[in-house]
């Protein structure tokens, strides 16, 4: 009779040990994801009843607070598991740099839109001063 209780105790301790190990693997995976986008993690907390928890099997939910590369502190939710990676609930909140937009110049004679590298207006032939 004592061996049966001992065996059940080992199974419970083993399951708890696996869950604790997975927690640390998840935190490392989330930290790598934030740092790959030039952010810095402030805190990662387990959120067992996070958004969408009811129908998920084998995925764990976390509340993540981090500072993005612009210096803004953000708090968002994510879910992760051993094989699926990190999925952000609200999408990645890390700010991206604004796209480079070439300023448009207008021809002084006809008003045609001229790109920066052109030496003359293709519409009227007037030479540009910035080429």
Q: Mean pLDDT score, rounded?
A: 82
Structural class: alpha+beta
Shape from CA axes? rod-shaped
Q: How far do the termini sit from each other?
A: 92 Å
User: What letter string, H or E per element, gives the SSE order?
Assistant: HEEEEEE
Number of strands: 6
Helix content: 25-40%
Distinct helical segment count = 1
Tell me the fraction of residues in β-strands, as a range. Answer: 15-25%
Q: Strand order across the biggest sheet?
A: 1-2-3-4
Largest sheet, strands/sense/barrel: 4 strands, antiparallel
What count of domains describes the coordinates? 2
Low-confidence stretches: none
Give a description of the structure.
The chain has 131 residues and is α+β, with helices and mostly antiparallel strands. It folds into two domains: 2-88, no CATH class; 102-131, no CATH class. It has one helix and six strands. It has one helix spanning 2-36, and strands spanning 40-46, 60-67, 73-81, 85-88, 105-106, 113-114. The strands form two sheets. A four-stranded antiparallel β-sheet has the order 1-2-3-4. A two-stranded antiparallel sheet has the order 5-6. A hairpin with a 5-residue loop joins strand 2 (60-67) and strand 3. The longest helix is centred in the first third of the chain and has 35 residues, at 2-36.
């Amino acid at each position: 009779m004592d061996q049966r209780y001992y065996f059940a105790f080992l199974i419970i301790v083993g399951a708890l040990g696996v869950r604790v190990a997975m927690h640390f693997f998840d935190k490392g995976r989330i930290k790598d994801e934030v740092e790959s986008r030039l952010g810095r993690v402030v805190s990662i907390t387990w959120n067992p009843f996070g958004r969408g928890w009811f129908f998920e099997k084998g995925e764990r939910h976390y509340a993540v607070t981090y500072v993005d590369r612009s210096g803004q502190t953000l708090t968002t939710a994510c879910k992760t598991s051993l094989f699926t990676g990190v999925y952000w609930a609200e999408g990645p909140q890390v700010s991206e740099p604004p796209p480079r937009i070439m300023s448009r110049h207008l021809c002084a004679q006809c008003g045609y839109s001229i790109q920066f590298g052109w030496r003359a207006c293709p519409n009227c032939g007037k030479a540009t001063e910035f080429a």
